[in-house]
Structure formats: structure tokens, C-alpha cells
Amino acid sequence: MESSESIPVIPLASSSNGRVSSKSWKPLKSATVPQIEKLGGQDGKDKKALSIKKLEVELKEEKKQEVMRRKEVTMERKKAAEERQRLEEDKAKMGARKAARLRRKAGRSKKVNG
Predict the structure, then answer these.
(1) 114 in helix, strand or coil?
(2) Which residues face 69 on adjacent strands?
(3) In which band, very low, low, confident or very high, does the pLDDT at 34 lie, cut at 50, 70 and 90?
(4) What one-character DSSP code corresponds to residue 22?
(5) How far is residue 92's CA from residue 98's CA, in Å, rounded to a whole number?
(6) pLDDT of residue 1
(7) Quick check: pTM over 0.70?
(8) What is the DSSP secondary structure assignment for residue 24, as one 8-state letter?
(9) What gap in Å lies between CA 62 and CA 99, rounded to an integer?
(10) Which is nearest to 9 in space by CA: 26, 28, 24, 29?
(11) How would DSSP label each residue in 28-49?
């Protein structure tokens, strides 16, 4: 009987459904990370996601401003081209009027009617 007292006895813990592990040499597993620490980790992920989202919004805003600037430049160029076209047409009109006036004046001169 003395030999049985020298061997340490490892008590077996029962599981939640009443079963007992037959592997007495394996320690029982328990949750190693408390729930509070998990939430802290999620917080870090949320902060990272928010910073990424903020960066995306900034980039989209910059892109939108660039597109608006390009449209503005295009509209200014278009207006300048229309103005040049209008001035050329007016110049041609004025040239035609002056030519007609000179023809009429030439018809009244003594040299032609002479």
C-alpha cells in the first residue's frame, strides 16, 4: 500500500456536459485572452478602418476638384475660341461694308463718271 501513496493522483475535471477526459497528462484548456482585450484589438481595427476611409474620402475629393478644374479650363478655352470666331466674323463684315462704301464712293467720283 505504501507504493500507491507515493504516486501523485491527478484529479480529473469534468466538462460541461458531464464527460471526463481520459487524457490525464493533458492540462485543461481555458480562454487565454480576456474579452476586454479582444475589444481593444477591435478598437484598433476600427481606428485603422476609419483612417483608411478618411483617406479615401480625401482622395475622392481631390480627384473631384481636379475634374472640376479641368472642366473650367475647357470652358474658358471654348469661350475664348467663340470670342475669336465672333471677332473674325465682325472683321469680315466690317471689311465687306468698307469695300461696298468704297465702291459707292468710286461711282460718284469725277474720274469714273467723268
Answers:
(1) coil
(2) none
(3) low
(4) S
(5) 10
(6) 47
(7) no
(8) T
(9) 55
(10) 24
(11) PP---S-HHHHHHHHHHHHHHH
